Amino acid sequence: MGEKFKVLPSQPSHNNLFLNRVAILGVGFIGASLALALKTHRLCGEISGFGRRESNLIRAQERGIIDSGSLDLIEAISDADLIVFAMPVGVFLETAAMMRGALKEGAVVTDVGSIKGTFVYEMEELLSPGAFFIGAHPIAGSEKSGIDTADAYLFSGNRCIITPTERSSKDALDIISTLWKTLGARIETMTPEEHDNVFGAVSHLPHIIAYEIVNTVEDINGIYLRYAGQGFKDLTRIALSSPELWRDICIANRVNLLSDLDIFIARLERVKGHLLASDARSLEEEFRRASSLRDGLGQN
Amino acid sequence: MGEKFKVLPSQPSHNNLFLNRVAILGVGFIGASLALALKTHRLCGEISGFGRRESNLIRAQERGIIDSGSLDLIEAISDADLIVFAMPVGVFLETAAMMRGALKEGAVVTDVGSIKGTFVYEMEELLSPGAFFIGAHPIAGSEKSGIDTADAYLFSGNRCIITPTERSSKDALDIISTLWKTLGARIETMTPEEHDNVFGAVSHLPHIIAYEIVNTVEDINGIYLRYAGQGFKDLTRIALSSPELWRDICIANRVNLLSDLDIFIARLERVKGHLLASDARSLEEEFRRASSLRDGLGQN
């Protein structure tokens, strides 16, 4: 990858990664947390931020999250060794298409998005030759938004899924793996397809459910939500997540989600059967299985 | 109600309630928390506990949660001015039937259950004449169980729904209202039917959903649950609740739940339609409505 990444091969590489210039595209909660994490771990020199709202970029700069901000994509990525897509996935491809001629030779491009699938192959295709795309998905709370709650240690101790393909550059993959390891994440690699199967089930479907149970209670009676207790608030916390972001993710993963929704609806129909029959034993068995599985994830 | 309740009418009654003897039937998380709260607020003399497991009663006594414990219902309620049903709702009626001849004249009987409906009328009928039933539902986390996490201030600042009927004794209602007010709860009265409509939507349906999303992920792939992040854990925290308790609640409220489930499933079918059509705008509208409603409940 050349001298840009000062990886000294004689040392464990995750102690020696240094990126002169990083561009964060989308300075929201995750983008800002990553910027802070990179600075805290001294993984980079300068960080430039790209975004749609100047006020946010100015605020991010004032708080030392980024060193410079720009509404101009080409300016933001200029001379960057690493470019991180931290914007809603719906604008990935058009953004990548706009930047391709302006990328530094050998630049590594990555993302922090919750969806991989065909995007990874399309990004790879759009950016090559000259730059290298490696998909990444740090598992971190997404219901927060904005830079006010950005956290340099957000990724520490949490999983980060990396989704290389057969075409992935080994050097670029090393850099992304090393980066996340250095930030304290537990790396796991999957194919983009595996990733979307897994996170369709444990993340995307749950978001749809959280949004729709809120809508359902409002449908039942417009004043009932005021009686929601802690359990309901926990259940629906992820419904605070960005509608725009999750719209894109769900549309992108719609094939898996359609199948997952059918499985979920079939389960609910089964519960309806137990209720209709006042079949307490079957209902308890359903609940007991779920409770025991949930218990395996720990209290919090 | 006689001298048993030392309510001095010249003072605000909620400062002057004192019950000589209280029986807690079911010394679990809620029962134990109520016992601690009654002691902390000096609302009673002695507390007896009734339960199925001697070891739990001994532990509760050792920790000063109850003053005496008994596996014998009649012994536990002997001479009690207030009897609190804090056991699974499925055993309410048989327990009430067993105790009716042994109740102190004028005793007040109440509960802390999540379901009211016909139970309230049946309890009222079973216990009269001689004793008075007033239904109550303190809104407090139910996914915890056991006395280890019992909390004297669990009810403070939270709602407590009281469900009097046309037959309710005014004195008994006063005692129960005063009790919960003294513990810091925000009292609200509803009919038993209103209560079950409201909490079917904001509590019982959400429990079914939490249990069934866990089962769904396990159905999709037995290894996927290990990838569950904080959002999934929040969403499914109430699936840690007692399967036995929630089986009883759901069966008892099955008429409301069947209708609520249909409304929820119709919402999910609508989402499927948006996904099939890749209709990003409609999907975003759904999510945005939910997100804004959820935001109205506050972050936590």
What top-tier CATH class of the largest domain in chain A fits best?
Answer: Alpha Beta
Radius of gyration of chain A: 21 Å
Looking at the chains present, what oligomeric state does this protein adopt?
homodimer
- The CATH architecture classification of the largest domain in chain A is 3-Layer(aba) Sandwich
Keywords:
homodimer, 300 residues, alpha/beta, Rossmann fold, 6-phosphogluconate dehydrogenase C-terminal fold, eight-stranded mixed sheet, 47% helix, elongated, disordered N terminus
Please give a structural write-up.
With 300 residues, the first copy, chain A, is α/β, with parallel strands linked by helices. Chain A has 2 domains: 13-190, Rossmann fold (3-Layer(aba) Sandwich), CATH 3.40.50.720; 194-295, 6-phosphogluconate dehydrogenase C-terminal fold (Orthogonal Bundle), CATH 1.10.3660. Chain A is 47% helix and 14% strand. Chain A is built from 11 helices and 8 strands. Chain A has an 8-stranded mixed sheet with strand order 3-2-1-4-5-6-7-8, with helices on both faces. In chain A, β4, α4 (92-99) and β5 (108-111) form a beta-alpha-beta unit. In chain A, α4 runs parallel beside α5 and α7 crosses α10 (254-276). Chain A starts with 18 loop residues before the first strand and ends in a 5-residue tail after the last helix. Chains A and B meet through α7, α8, α9, α10 and α11 of A and α7, α8, α9, α10 and α11 of B.
